[in-house]
Amino acid sequence: MKNNIPRIPLAQLPTPFYKLENISAELGRSIYIKRDDMTGVSLGGNKVRKLEYLLADAKEKGCDVVITTGGAQSNHAMLTAACCRKLGIEPILMLKKRGVMGRKGNLLLEALMDVDVRFVDTDSYDDVYVEMDKLADELRAAGRKPYLVPVGGSVPLGTLGYVKCAEEVFAQAKAADVKIDRVICTAGSGGTLAGMVLGTMLYGGGAAVTGIAVCEDPFEEIVAELVPETAKLMGEDVPLTPAEVDVRRYYGAGYAQPSEEGLEAVRMMARKEGLMLDPVYTGKTFAGLIDLCRKGEIKENETVLFLHSGGAASLFAIDPEAVVK
Asked: Which domain does 105 fall in, by range?
């Protein structure tokens, strides 16, 4: 991967890669995990890799405040705030007033970091972006230099973080003499999936990528747009059509609404491997992996990589009686 693109090393890399022995026995498949819940900032998670590029861009442009968005329990927003604190940049979070409110989960962590958190009462990020632009104009008028990061950091520059992750994990697999046949990862805003798709095309030796959608967004189109644009940053020409993007939808009743299948997956991972998933992203993603195995769409001879993208803080924002059975 090109090394001339500015990047600030924030994550503790490489993150671990190993076989989930008990899960593999349970599902009758070889299941490996990439532990991007262990990226080393706050409680860890996938957004740190994206922020290495986005915040490097902010620093290079002389920005002193970063504004970003997400839902009330956004992992991206929390990790953006944490990385900004680490770099001495002021974070401001403009969050949708949707989901679990109060000092629980990620909102508790943001309060602990003394972050300026504001809410917009809307279902549309278009409304949030209008408010972010207004705030940015106010800050500029006051002599500040704001840097705006869209939801999830899912722009070509942020997507580079998961091209790098794919390069990293396939190198780890090669060193362990493991041939990965399929990558399973979350599709929540699209950048992580796009990065894994592009990185797998470049470094994966023919492996397939399946994204598990946890909301209703058109990820086939999002990924097909992000992949070529991200490739251009690397000096590569990688065309992709929406029809070539494999996305399966396991969002249940809707985004950030726990599903019973997702909670069952959270319990299985905890009880079989001692690892914590979350009810919004990784729990539903792992539920998709389980379902694809049980339906036979993931074949018995396949070696599967599950990307653990973090998010366990949201376990502490929902009703514990819904999780523990």
From this structure: 47-152
